[in-house]
């Protein structure tokens, strides 16, 4: 197949992998050709577009965002999505207009690639595949990133309209499927399948914990609970900091390591400055290095926030399992992530929004680490990116016929 992938996150460095480049590289390894068009939110506004071929043989066309910045934060963000998509569409027409593709792959939110999606699906007459990673605008509204009322109604209509353009929709779990059907009007011919998250599943190279902890200036005499991810709303950063504060005096043998970047970095830095000496903060590093770092820790943290009714399935799960870490998850009750941890014997879960319960669970797992031998079988059974490639190939054969 000749595959076109539209996305807003695509690391070029194969060491710094994400779901998008993991999948594209695996598709190329399976004999397919992949063209990616990525609107790079982290690129400077107005930078020229360019094409690069990654080490794993994927052709990547990179477009910088566009935005109106002089009308305030909300207008700037909304215009970034609209104008960036329109500009990427115009650039795609120029660069890819004379080519042909069999399959179009996108990821939610669809509105971030709306113009490219509309043009590409019509111009190339592709079969279309959507992976639902979150539920826009429901999730964004529940964590305070999108207002309600008229703005929410328009955003919901747009996302639903775009979602109806896909022949096949992959959802991260069964509760994702149920939520999709209950909140979006789909067309009768659209197929919806459970399609778990994916990634490379090879374990990281063996490490010397003392050397790794020394490299990243981590204490040698403490057990470390690690959180890796974006420091943004909806990630439970405040709850983790609150749990750390509760354990600061009673458990001097425990430390909390947060790795990432985002709008809420200041909360972490402020808590450290206010005397949170059991909290450690390191900025985002490449995934290969991240795996080595968390392998020197003792347990992995997954946190969301209370009051969010859209299900979630955190991608960092794969990294924690690859590093053989037990997982402590404080998650909303509307997701089946906690049931997944229990059924596969890879962690414990509790409702989000209760820092005291989170602190108690961290203590329990730190003092009585579970047998994490189940991590390897879980990775092979559920998360291997090669399984997603096989699913795509089988699904394409079905929808083409």
* CATH homologous superfamily descriptor of the largest domain: Glycogen Phosphorylase B
CATH architectural arrangement of the largest domain: 3-Layer(aba) Sandwich
Helix-strand pattern: EHEEEHEHEHHEHEHEHEHEHEHEHEHHH
Count of structural domains: 2
The helicity comes to 40-55%
Uncertain runs are none
How many strands appear in the DSSP assignment?
A: 14
Q: What's the CATH topology label of the largest domain?
A: Rossmann fold
Task: Report on this structure.
- The protein has 401 residues and is α/β, with parallel strands linked by helices.
- It folds into two domains: 215 residues, Glycogen Phosphorylase B (Rossmann fold); 173 residues, Rossmann fold, CATH 3.40.50.
- It is built from 15 helices and 14 strands.
- An eight-stranded mixed β-sheet has the order 3-4-2-1-5-6-7-8, with helices on both faces. Strands 11-10-9-12-13-14 form a six-stranded parallel β-sheet, sandwiched between helices.
- α1 crosses α15.
- The radius of gyration is 21 Å and the shape is globular.
- The mean pLDDT is 91.
Provide a short characterization of the protein structure.
This protein has 401 residues and is α/β, with parallel strands linked by helices.
List keywords for this structure.
401 residues, alpha/beta, Rossmann fold, eight-stranded mixed sheet, six-stranded parallel sheet
């Amino acid at each position: 197949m000749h595959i076109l992938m539209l996305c807003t996150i695509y690391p070029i460095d194969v060491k710094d992998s994400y779901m998008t480049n993991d999948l594209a590289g695996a598709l190329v390894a399976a004999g397919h050709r992949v063209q990616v068009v990525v609107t790079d939110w982290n690129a400077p506004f107005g930078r020229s577009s360019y094409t690069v071929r990654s080490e794993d043989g994927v052709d990547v066309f990179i477009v910088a965002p566009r935005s109106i910045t002089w009308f305030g934060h909300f207008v700037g963000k909304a215009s970034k999505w609209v104008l960036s998509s329109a500009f990427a569409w115009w650039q795609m027409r120029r660069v890819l207009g004379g080519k042909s593709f069999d399959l179009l792959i996108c990821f939610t939110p669809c509105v971030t690639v709306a113009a490219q999606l509309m043009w590409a699906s019509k111009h190339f007459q592709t079969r279309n595949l959507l992976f639902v990673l979150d539920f826009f605008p429901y999730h964004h509204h529940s964590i305070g990133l999108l207002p309600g009322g008229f703005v929410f109604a328009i955003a919901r209509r747009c996302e639903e309209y775009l979602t109806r353009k896909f022949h096949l929709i992959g959802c991260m779990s069964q509760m994702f499927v149920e939520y999709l059907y209950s909140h979006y009007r789909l067309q009768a011919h659209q197929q919806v399948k459970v399609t778990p998250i994916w990634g490379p599943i090879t374990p990281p190279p063996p490490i010397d914990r003392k050397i790794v902890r020394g490299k990243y200036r981590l204490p040698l005499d403490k057990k470390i609970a690690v959180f890796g991810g974006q420091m943004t709303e909806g990630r439970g950063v405040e709850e983790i900091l609150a749990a750390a504060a509760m354990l600061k005096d009673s458990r001097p043998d425990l430390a909390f390591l947060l790795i990432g970047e985002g709008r809420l970095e200041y909360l972490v830095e402020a808590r450290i400055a206010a005397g949170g000496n059991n909290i450690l903060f390191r900025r985002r590093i490449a995934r290969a290095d991240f795996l080595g770092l968390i392998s020197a820790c003792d347990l992995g943290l997954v946190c969301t926030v209370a009051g969010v009714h859209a299900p979630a399935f955190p991608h960092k799960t794969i990294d924690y399992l690859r590093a053989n870490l037990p997982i402590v998850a404080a998650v909303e009750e509307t997701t089946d992530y906690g049931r997944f941890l229990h059924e596969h014997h890879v962690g414990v879960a509790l409702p989000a929004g209760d820092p005291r319960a989170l602190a108690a669970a961290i203590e329990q797992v730190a003092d009585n680490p579970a047998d994490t031998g189940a991590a390897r079988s879980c990775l092979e059974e559920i998360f291997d990116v090669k399984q997603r490639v096989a699913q795509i190939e089988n699904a394409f054969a079905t929808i083409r016929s």
